[in-house]
Amino acid sequence: MSSPFFPLDSSWDAAYERELQTFQDIGDTGEIWFGEESMVRIIRWLEKHKVPLDSSVLDIGTGNGVLLVELAKSGYMNLTGIDYSPSAIQLSEKVREKEGMSNIKLKVEDFLAPSAELSGFDICIDKGTFDAISLDPSDAVGKRKLYVGSLCRVLKPEGFFLITSCNWTKEELLNEFREGFEILEELPTPKFCFGGRIGNSVTALVFHRK
């Protein structure tokens, strides 16, 4: 379960505690949310658009930190991962240590109330964290608004926001991020066929901060 924090829900921390124990026992980093192709999709986009390797990148809800490790292997040098779950950060620290990626910065942070030092990023990446917040039974609408506000604070003007979601369609995400963001591109994702209609089980979008 390599993915997002879920505020006010201890189940995420418990899940990461289990993954941390499994990693310590057998070296397994755990599940990659949306599969390895989701990481490849992100890295290919960055490479295609010649995003400089020294760009500051924030992984929102980093989970086991595997995306950051893959970004580091691709040459990216200024990488930060945050997660609401202390156990997730412990796990990502272990993964970072195993991979010898000491330049990856990791922090326990609640993205809905980010610290002042969490700012000025060129790229923000979300693989499932916005989904998790959207499922919060306690004021999900309010928390989504807080998320967008936090994103505006931590991402530089003209910066890029890459989001992967299994809960939201393209049109719904465009509506959620209409304040302060414009879409640049929809990335190709796996399609499914049901009842004669073809659709996407995952939505991946790139936004540009105005």
UniProtKB/TrEMBL annotation:
GO molecular function ontology, one term from the record: protein-lysine N-methyltransferase activity
Top-rank taxon: Eukaryota
Gene3D superfamilies reported in the protein's UniProt record: Vaccinia Virus protein VP39
Keywords, comma-separated and alphabetical: Cytoplasm, Methyltransferase, Nucleus, S-adenosyl-L-methionine, Transferase
Catalyzed reactions: L-lysyl-[protein] + 3 S-adenosyl-L-methionine = N(6),N(6),N(6)-trimethyl-L-lysyl-[protein] + 3 S-adenosyl-L-homocysteine + 3 H(+)
InterPro entries: Efm4/METTL10 (IPR026635), Methyltranfer_dom (IPR025714), SAM-dependent_MTases_sf (IPR029063)
Domain (Methyltransferase) ranges: 56-185
Transmembrane stretches, start-end: none
PANTHER family: EEF1A LYSINE METHYLTRANSFERASE 2, PROTEIN-LYSINE N-METHYLTRANSFERASE METTL10
Name of the protein in question: EFMT2 methyltransferase
